[in-house]
Design brief:
five-stranded mixed beta sheet, single chain, Rossmann fold, 23% helix
Length: 207
């Protein structure tokens, strides 16, 4: 958990089991038993143990795990990922919940299974699209979506994915903490796909 959200309850409503990792678990438990690990919002700002044991999470990814980092404030701007990136001191957000969306990699596995994701899944969102996007990133990261408010430059640092060793490292600043409590259908379908990337038989593992 970061500063608190209802994403764990949303995951359980999707039919998956959830275990909250405290400092002891993060420091010494067998992380490889988890298919997917999700970091709470603003976690790098409030979880000092996360700073201490960040390498354990990168090792987890390298060994085949999937790590999903939800939106973080500029405390995250210290290259905690496997490859360099930059957020900046005043990161952008997309605050219009009906802002245009473009899938930059429509054939990416996360848009295929278990749900076939289309632009229709971005309809009916509430309050905002997302916040605290990255501004630059190493070529190992693949941006998956583009969004922008009226008058704003297109934002591509919203959802980035990178292979690291045998696993996947993902930064996704979409506002799951707003969409899941309201049971927004498309957002729930997308998030189900996101956490399903950790499945042992996920199609991307054969690529």
């Amino acid at each position: 958990m970061g500063t608190g959200d209802q994403v764990p309850a949303g995951i359980e409503q999707l039919g998956a089991s959830v275990e909250i990792l405290d400092t002891s678990a993060l420091a010494s438990s067998d992380l490889n038993r988890f298919h997917t690990i999700v970091l709470g919002i603003r976690a790098y700002a409030v979880r000092k143990d996360l700073l201490t044991y960040n390498q354990r999470l990168l090792d987890y990814v390298s060994q085949g795990g999937v790590l999903v980092v939800q939106y973080n404030t500029p405390e995250y701007d210290n290259n905690f990922g496997p490859y360099p990136y930059q957020m900046g001191r005043r990161p952008e957000e997309v605050s219009e919940e009906d802002s245009p969306v473009r899938l930059l990699a429509p054939d990416a596995p996360v848009f295929q299974m278990p749900n076939r994701i289309t632009l229709a899944d971005f309809e009916g969102w509430v309050e905002q699209r997302g916040s605290k996007h990255l501004t630059t990133w190493a070529p190992e990261y693949t941006p998956l979506v583009e969004m922008y408010d009226r008058g704003q430059d297109p934002q591509r640092g919203i959802w980035l994915e990178a292979r690291h060793g045998k696993g996947l490292y993902i930064y996704c600043s979409l506002a799951w903490y707003r969409q899941l409590p309201f049971a927004v259908p498309g957002a729930a379908r997308i998030f189900a796909n996101l956490i399903s990337l950790g499945a042992p038989d996920a199609p991307w593992r054969g690529r």
